[in-house]
Fold:
Amino acid sequence: MTTTLHLRKRGYDPFFDFMKGICILCVIWLHTMPKAETGAVFWGSQAVPLFLFMQVFHALKGGRIRFPDWGKLFRRIIAPYGVTLVVILLLTSWAQGRFRLTLRAGPGAYYPFVYIQFAVLIPLFAWLARAFKDHFKTALLASTLLASIASELAASWLHVPNLVWIYLCARYLFIIGLAAFWLEGRIRLTPWTFLLSLASLYFLWLFRYAHFKWPPLFFDTTWNQCHWVCYFHPAFLCPVLIGLLYRVSFKGLKKLLIVLGKASYEIFLAQMAVIAVLASLFRANKSLACILLAWILSLGLGLALHRLLARPRRRTTAPAAPGN
Structure:
C-alpha cells in the first residue's frame, strides 16, 4: 500500500506554509517545554530538517538550479538576524548587569548560519549531480551521503568542538540528497520508505534515550538526533502525516497555520530574543506563567515583525523565507 503526498513544482503551494506553521510551533515547544518527557525528538526535533527539506525543494524545483541572491539573503535573513542579536545582547546584558559577547545569544541562533551554508551548497551538489544526466537522483543521494559520513568521521578524528559543530551544516548534508525524492513532485510512503522511516525513529530512540554512541562513524555530540541515518523520517513519514492533517483540518486551523508559516522566520527571531531575555530575567524559572508569556510574546512579536518587514517587500519581489 502506498500513500502519496503531491507537491506543486510551480506556483504557490499553501501546504508549505501550513507545514512551516507547524514547524515553528514545534521550535517554540522545543525551547520552552520538556523534551525527553514529551518524546519531542520524534516530532518537534524534526522541525529544522523539514525547514531544510523545503529549502532544497524550492531551490531545485522545476529542474532549475537556483544560486543564492546575496542581496535578498542579506535583506531577508542576515540583516534581521544581526539586529536581533544586537537587541538580545543589549537586553540580556542589562538584565545580568554585565556585557557578554556570544553567538549563542538565544535558542536556535545557529539556524541562519546553516540556512546560508545550505543556500551555497545546494546548487553546488546539484550541479555536480547533473553531470550524471539520467542518474541525477542517485548521484545526489550518493554524493551527499558520502559527504555526511566523511564529515562525521573528520569531526570525530579532529575532535571538533561542539559549539563549532552546531554552526556547521555538515550534520544536515544528507537532507540535500533525500530531497531528490521531493523534487519528483510527490512524496511516496511505500513499504520501503515506511521501513526506512521506522529505522530512523529507532535510531533517534537509540541516540536520545539509549545513549547509543558509535564514533567515529557517528560523531559524538550533544546534537545526537542529527545524524544522516535519522533523516528518512522527516523525508517521508513526517511530511505525509502533515499532509494528512492538512487534508482534514478545518478552514480556521488551516488558515491560522498558513499565517504562522508565512511569518515563520520572524517568529523564529522573536522567540530567540524573548526566551533569551526571559531566561536572563527569571534565571531557571520555568513556571507556567513564564512559559505562556514566552509563547504569547514570541508569536505576537513575530507576527508584528512580519507585517512590518512585509511592507517594503511588497514593492519588490519577495525573497524566500527559511524553508523556501
Remarks:
- Residues 3-313 form one domain.
- The first strand starts at residue 3 and ends at 6.
- Residues 316-321 have pLDDT under 50 and may be disordered.
- The chain is about 65% helix and 0% strand.
